[in-house]
Queue: 2 jobs
Job 1
Amino acid sequence: DARVTQTPRHKVTEMGQEVTMRCQPILGHNTVFWYRQTMMQGLELLAYFRNRAPLDDSGMPKDRFSAEMPDATLATLKIQPSEPRDSAVYFCASGSARARTQETQYFGPGTRLLVL
Amino acid sequence: DAKTTQPNSMESNEEEPVHLPCNHSTISGTDYIHWYRQLPSQGPEYVIHGLTSNVNNRMASLAIAEDRKSSTLILHRATLRDAAVYYCILKPQEYPSGGGADGLTFGKGTHLIIQP
């Protein structure tokens, strides 16, 4: 049963520390999305990639967040330096885009981040 | 972007059908209607999507009004495992070039409570 995996599942860190979250998309999927969920804002899109190229990162705070896809099997989301307001659940999702078809997104279990 | 309106919460009894409404009066002709759900402590999960015709799959049915200004997700026989937040999302048709497929814009959704 193919699924998106995310590591770590939980992370507690202190303000100012660097945080790296990793995502392994479903094999063969060419689109990867990063979302963040908080009680106040709900689920928000941060960034997404297609064929490893960033297509949109307008939802991401540019000064401290960065997203990359070093290869087709790994996507990373990095926060440096982290702040308490970054505390949230971060979800990765992958999909398989084909022209003129609707892409279904498959979500990972999320990384629950707490910044003290 | 066209918006959707859903009730904050709904309650139903186990093994009874559930009809979850969604209003989208400003939907454009090329917007698809997607439904996702999020079970407690999990990532969102795709349920169903459609454009104009009613759709059925193993999880649910989607009934789309003739004018497309509203739709209803139907769970034919709810179980306790269907207790979740259900999101109705409009998604533009993908562009012919294959690019520009946006991420999902989640609203607050409907919190479905199932009573045993």
Job 2
Amino acid sequence: AQSVAQPEDQVNVAEGNPLTVKCTYSVSGNPYLFWYVQYPNRGLQFLLKYITGDNLVKGSYGFEAEFNKSQTSFHLKKPSALVSDSALYFCAVRGHNTNAGKSTFGDGTTLTVKP
Amino acid sequence: EAGVAQSPRYKIIEKRQSVAFWCNPISGHATLYWYQQILGQGPKLLIQFQNNGVVDDSQLPKDRFSAERLKGVDSTLKIQPAKLEDSAVYLCASSLSGSRVDTQYFGPGTRLTVL
């Protein structure tokens, strides 16, 4: 079975500092990895995905994520955090032993960026 | 391009009552998903449609939940009768083809409170 772990419920950073939101996964075969952001009373908004190729993936709003196969990780990063980045972030994985479109999500990490 | 539409946005009912949620996916998207998001957890797939056929309903509590997508466009999710533990946000998402590389686009969700 595929699974995702987001080990930190909460991440706090100061505005202008770099941020990292951690994600590790377990899946059969090559993984397909996704990051979403959720603002209060809103649905999930797609940020970026890793399918194949370059391990560093760039996405929306200056976010990027690094795929590390040996550590089975896909951490979300941003060089300089903004107060407006404060939200709930979800990592998701798809593998090869389930229905193709089925995503398994982590339980989310709340990012708070303080001015 | 219009996004995924859902209604109602909020619903409060008493246990044992019935409730229905509606979703209109992005035009041209063949695949439609219903997720349940319990507070503090990531979304969990309830059912996935490819056009008007069911691809995956393995986590749908079929004794009380039902869903349909009769003409391959709009979809309705019903709960009958509702239990306290059904209190959650119900998210609808759509994607172009349902493949592993597809991005899923989410609607704003319906927040259900069962009293």
